[in-house]
Amino acid sequence: MLCSEFSALELSWKSMPSFDKEYFSLGHLDLLSYQNTFIHRLDPRTKIAVTFVFVLTVVSFPKYEVSGLIPFFLYPVLIFSLGDIPVRFILKKVLIVSPFAICIGIFNPFLDTITLYTLSGIHISGGWVSFFSILIKFVLTVSAALLLIATTSFPGVCYGLQRLRVPEIFVSQLLFLYRYLFVLMEETMRIVRAQAVRSFDKKGLEIRTYINLIGVLFIRTMERSERIYRAMLSRGFSGRIETFRLHSIAQADVLVLLFSLVLCYCFRRYDIIGMLDHVMKGLL
Amino acid sequence: MSHHLVELKDVYFRYPDGTETLKGISLRIVHGEAVGIVGANGAGKSTMLMHMNGYLMPSQGTVIIGDLELNKTSRKEIRKKVGLVFQNPDDQLFMPTVFDDVAFGPLNLGLSQNKVQERVASALETVGCLDLSTKPPHHLSIGQKSAVAIAAVIAMQPDILVMDEPASSLDPKSRRHLINMLKDFKHTKIIASHDLDLILDVCTRCMVLGNGRIMADGLTEDVLSNKDLLEENSLELPLSLQKM
Question: Which whole number is the average pLDDT over B28-46?
């Protein structure tokens, strides 16, 4: 159901100016996190811990590892299906950041030319294998992070971090980031619109105007922060943001955590693909 | 009751850039009064309101809230007594969810968790937003945002409620809802607004501010029906009085 809603949304985005589009797409990611599925109901701490263990395990593999990483795709697949998250939406986000990973690995094939495998006559150099390994690790870790955000409300993540004893100042920074990201984007959207309706052809859209625009945004942000601080003071703020929530670790959380730890350990320790291969050959 | 008193004695205020916004304001508002403050843009309304909860300190003169004189040490106590609702609800709602935002003040007052929960629920109930409590503020409409901003302030149970342009961005229905809500509050109310009909509906007493001075102070019906006085101060008769 959500997927069809999503494609309808996507269609309507096509007709929007690009800034507005980005704004609504971010809002969409946020809305996803307010669904009510098994994954969404888990305690944020559990999800943070699982994501953390997952990412650590994935990056702990040596640089020529490819087959050992494949079983880890089970994790995103499970979250996508149990959490009712539109796959294309997340994959697009992964694609957007992919240039970073490509830049890191792109020179490996040129620098590392020792042949590691020969597949039906084609020599595959270590460079290509390690490049491929980097890409897989990238896709796994980034989608894990995005899935954490898509299945846990951002305040939930902050609350989890606070309970996991992350320093107060980082938590409050994150809370404000989340709260005012939307306000700031709206502010920017208004400025961009005001500029667009008074610009004709290419006139008024030069880099110079954008520099002014950033200046205006900066000043407005400063003024706003002043007003927000005033509002906080008038409600007795004294340096620490108190939060109130009665979450508790349920049985499901313990089970999910144990299950993920065991799976991560097994996938890291044993060559699952090799074993499958062995079993398949035995069957044949 | 003396603790609901608001008194300004010959208050002057000069911004760091040299503009003198308040030029000798003296007023006394007693318990349970509903006072409207009207005046042209830049007349000093917001500046005056910010003195009432100690965000700004007078350059000269004294501010007395309840039995406390405003100074650096009494400021904290004064903020507990005076609830200030800002013009733009986005500035006021800084926590990630409605519940957290309304709970922010009570938690800072050091109340127990149960007590906080009670306060939040009853404040949200009062403004008719109880069902929004888990929503993040950016998913709310402006009308809902300003209702929640008011809830956030009344959850602290202040003795005095101060509002700066509470209805400026509300649609007529939300505005009417706000007016009815304000009429029900038993607090001392001080409301600055350009919405003269709102002042006429809610407030019994009205002050006209002009150029940093109090130009008139009296019963709302008298002040807001004085056409000459209003026009001198860039105002006009409230719409409901224009038809008569």
Answer: 91
* Alpha carbons B191 and B24: distance in angstroms, whole number: 20
Give the CATH number of domain B2-242: 3.40.50.300
- Interface probe for B, chosen from A171, A177, A235 (most Cβ of B below 10 Å), is A235
A102 and A115 share a domain? yes
Residues 167-226 of chain B with CB under 8 A from chain A are none
Residue B136 binned pLDDT confidence (cut-offs 50, 70, 90):
confident
Q: Could you tell me where the beta strands, DSSP code E, fall in A93-182?
A: 115-119, 122-125
Chain A contact for B165 (CB, 8 A cutoff):
no
Query: CB contact, 8 Å: A24 with chain B?
Result: no
Q: What pLDDT score was predicted for residue A12?
A: 53
Residues 3-42 of B with CB under 8 A from A: none
Q: Is the pTM of this model over 0.90?
A: no
> Could you tell me if A122 and A172 lie in one domain?
no
Same domain, A135 and A217: no
Tell me the residue type at B182. Answer: L
pLDDT at residue A48, rounded to an integer: 92
Q: For the purposes of burial, counting CB atoms within 10 Å of the CB of B83, is it exposed (0-12), middle (13-18) or buried (19 or more)?
A: buried
DSSP A72: G
Q: d(Cα A105, Cα B164) in Å, to the nearest integer?
A: 57
User: Is A234 close to B84, i.e. CB distance below 8 A?
Assistant: yes
pLDDT digits (tens, 9 = 90+) for A154-205: 888 888 888 888 888 888 888 888 888 888 888 888 888 877 777 776 666 6
Pairing of strands B160-164, B82-85: parallel
Q: What is the arrangement of strands in the sheet containing B213-219, beginning at the earlier edge strand?
A: B82-85, B160-164, B188-192, B34-39, B205-210, B213-219
* H-run or E-run covering B104: helix B98-108
